C-alpha cells in the first residue's frame, strides 16, 4: 500500500503547494479507486484529503484571501488528481467552483456564505427548477440531475426559471422567460440515489430535489453580472476552463499504465505496441497543448486588462474546442490502449476497464458534444451559437 505523509495543517498558499499536494495524493486515490467506484460517491475521508490539498480553495481570488490560481494552474491540479481517480478528479473540479462563484456575489455576502475557503459547491446550472419571486428573494422548487459531488457539498447551486405570481417572468434582454442561479445550503437539499451509470460512478452525481426553499436575493447570481471580483477569473465561462484536467489526467494515467505493462511483459520491440503507444502519445501531447495554449492566450489578454472580446474569433473558439477535443481524445486513447492490452483489460480489477467506462461517460457531458462544434463554428462564421456561454457570451441582464 502506498504511504503518503499526512498533509500539513497549514492551508496551501501557492499554486505550487496545491499542485504538490495533489500529486502526492494521486497514488492514494489510485489505490482507493475501486472502493470509490463501488460506493458511487467519495468516502468522507477522501473528501477530507481533497480539502487538504487546497483544491476547493484554488479559485478564490486574493481579494477573498485565496491563492487565486490561474485557470491553467487549476487545470494542472485537476489533472494530477484525475491521474489518481477520475471520480475524485471530477468532484474536485466541480467543488473548486466555489471561489469562482464568489466573483458573481457581493463581496460581503460571499464572505458570510464561505467563512472557510475550503467549502465545496455542487449542482446543475441549467434552469430545471422554478423560482417564484417573493419579497426579499425567491421560493425555489425543482428536481435536477447530475449533482456531481452533491453527497458531500456544502452549498448547492441550481438553475431555475423565474415566475411572478405564477406567471413566467420575462428577461430584461427580451427573452420570454428569465432564469437565474440560486445557492442553498446542502441541508436544504434532498439527494436521490439515482447514480447507477456506466462510468464516473465515484462522482456521486445523483439527482436532487429542493422543495419550496426560500433563497435570499443576495444568494443568487448570473454570469452576466460580476459583483465581487475582477480580472481573469471574473469571467462568465470561468467554471468550464479546468474541466479538461479530468480527461487529460485519465489519459495520462492510461498511457503510463499501458507503457509499464508493455515493459513488464517484454514487449519493447513489438511493432504494434510501439506504434500504438507512440500514436496515443502524439494525440495526448497535441490535445494537452491545445488546452493549455488556449488558456495561456486567454490569460495573456485578460491579465493585461482586456476582455474576452479582445480575443480573435479563432482564439475565442479555441477555448471550447480544445475542451471538447481533450475529452474526445482521452476516450480515443483509452479505447486504443484497451485494444492493445487485449483480454487482460476486460476484468474489472483492470484500471483500463474503469478508465474506458469513465471516459465514455464523461464524453456525454455537453462540453464534449457536437453542440460545442456548432457554437464554435457559428462564432467563426458570424452566426448564432447554440451555447454562447461556452464562449463567455451572455445576453444582457437587468
H/E topology pattern: HHHHHHEEEEEEEEEHHHHH
User: Approximately what portion of the residues adopt beta-strand conformation?
Assistant: 5-15%
Overall pLDDT level: 95
Structural class: alpha+beta
Number of domains: 3
> What is the 3D shape?
globular
- CATH superfamily grouping of the largest domain: Butyryl-CoA Dehydrogenase, subunit A, domain 3
> Mind telling me which CATH architecture of the largest domain this is?
Up-down Bundle
Query: How many helices?
Result: 11
Low-confidence stretches at least 5 residues in length (pLDDT < 50)? 1-7
CATH topology of the largest domain: Butyryl-CoA Dehydrogenase, subunit A, domain 3
Number of beta strands:
9
Protein name: Acyl-CoA dehydrogenase
GO molecular function: acyl-CoA dehydrogenase activity; flavin adenine dinucleotide binding
GO biological process, one term: fatty acid beta-oxidation using acyl-CoA dehydrogenase
Family: Belongs to the HpaH/HsaA monooxygenase family.
3D architecture notes:
This protein has helices at 15-39, 44-53, 71-84, 86-95, 97-102, 107-113, 244-264, 271-303, 313-341, 351-362, 370-381; strands at residues 121-122, 127-134, 137-147, 155-164, 167-168, 179-185, 190-192, 206-216, 220-221. With 398 residues, the protein is of the alpha+beta class. Strands 1, 2, 3, 4, 5, 6, 7, 8 and 9 form a nine-stranded mixed sheet that branches. Residues 1-7 have low confidence and may be disordered. This is Acyl-CoA dehydrogenase. InterPro entries: Acyl-CoA_dehydrogenase, Acyl-CoA_DH_C, Acyl-CoA_Oxase/DH_mid-dom_sf, AcylCo_DH-like_C, AcylCoA_DH/ox_N, AcylCoA_DH/ox_N_sf, AcylCoA_DH/oxidase_NM_dom_sf. GO terms for molecular function: acyl-CoA dehydrogenase activity; flavin adenine dinucleotide binding.
